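Lab channel / #folding
Pinned by the channel admin:
"Please post every new chain as: sequence first, then the structure tokens as a reply. Keep commentary short and put observations after the output so the thread stays searchable."

First post following the new format, from NK:
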Amino acid sequence: MRDYELTLVIDPEASGEDRKKQLDKIKKVVEELKGKVEKTDDWGRKELAYPIRKKNLGYYFFMAIKTPEGSLPALEKKLKLEEGLLRYLLVRKE
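Reply from TO:
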């Protein structure tokens, strides 16, 4: 198992409950891939550097996760299919 950092930008028009559901769904995906979410931070609503899907704002979330290396393609595939997710960044922690 390796340590990874996952940063998410969620649609600013999503309600608080919708954001929570989306985070829970992503946590569930990580756990299905035999990984675990160690920490989740809410960085709040921030202005984007450039518009994404005609949105100028986004909710930022940070997750510290542990997952087997072979599960990354499956995780990225699931993240790409999330509708309310504007962007994500998955980085291996040194």
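NK: The longest strand covers residues 36-52.
TO: also worth noting, The chain is about 30% helix and 50% strand.
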